[in-house]
Amino acid sequence: MELWYTEKQTENFGITSKIKETLVTEKTDFQDLAMIDTNEWGRMLVLDGMVMTSVRDEFVYHEMVAHPALSTHPNPKNVLVVGGGDGGVIREVLKHPEVEKAVLVEIDGKVIEYSKKYLPEIAGELDNPRVEVIVNDGYMHIHDHKNTYDVIMVDSTEPVGPAVELFSKGFYQGIYESLKEDGIFVAQTDNPWFKADLIQTVNRDVREIFPIVRVYGANIPTYPSGLWTFTMGSKKYDPLQVEEASIPEFETKYYTPRLHKAAFVLPKFVEDLVK
Which EC number(s) are documented for this chain (predicted)? Predict the structure, then answer.
C-alpha cells in the first residue's frame, strides 16, 4: 500500500508527495504539527497541513530570508528572527561573522524540539553560543524591545493561526520601532499566483512605514506555485545599491553575490502587483 501526503494549496489545487514514514504527529498548543519522511523531498515539517520546510529544498528559503538583508546592512551585529523554529534562518545568519548575537523568538516550542530531533541539518546551530532561543510571542517581543536590532527577519507560516498578527500593519510598525536608526527587516510574503492580494496589502502597509521597500523572489518547489516572494523594508540602505564586490563569499547553495540584485528583478505580473 502506498501512502501519500497532499497539501491543498487552494480549494482546487494541491501538491502531493509519497511518504516513506510518518515520524510524528501532534496537536500542539498552537497548531497541528507533523514530521514526515518523503521519497522525493526527504524529511519534511508540516504545520496545519502546510509544508514549512523539507531537507532537500530548504536551503533556498533560508538563504533568501537571511542573506539579502545581511548583505545590505553594513554592520548587522544584533539580529532577530521571529518564527523560524526549525533553525534554518539562524544557521544562515551565523555565516555572517559580524553578527554578534542572533535571537530566535518562536511561539511554539514543539517546532524547535522536533526540528532538533528530526531535522539536524537545519536546526544544528540553535545551540550555538551566539544564539539566544526564546519560546514566546514574537509580536510581543517586538513591542517590548525598542531600538534594539540591526536586522529583523520574519520567518512565519502563512497568515493563519498564530501567524495572523505577523502580517498586520501594527506588527510592521512595531518592527520599525524595534529596529535601530539604520535597521532593515525582511519577511516572507507568500506567492503571487494564489496570494496576490496579500502581497499587495503587505507592500502597501510597509511602504507607509519604511522609506525603502523592495520585493524579491526565489524558486521553492515545495511551496505553493514554486514562486515565492519576500518583502524588505529598510530605514537607510537600499539592497539595489549594494556593490557585488562588497558581498563576501560564504558557503551557499542558492544565494550568490551575483544573484543579490538579480533576485529583485520581478516578472512583469509580480512587478505590477507592487507598483
Answer: 2.5.1.16
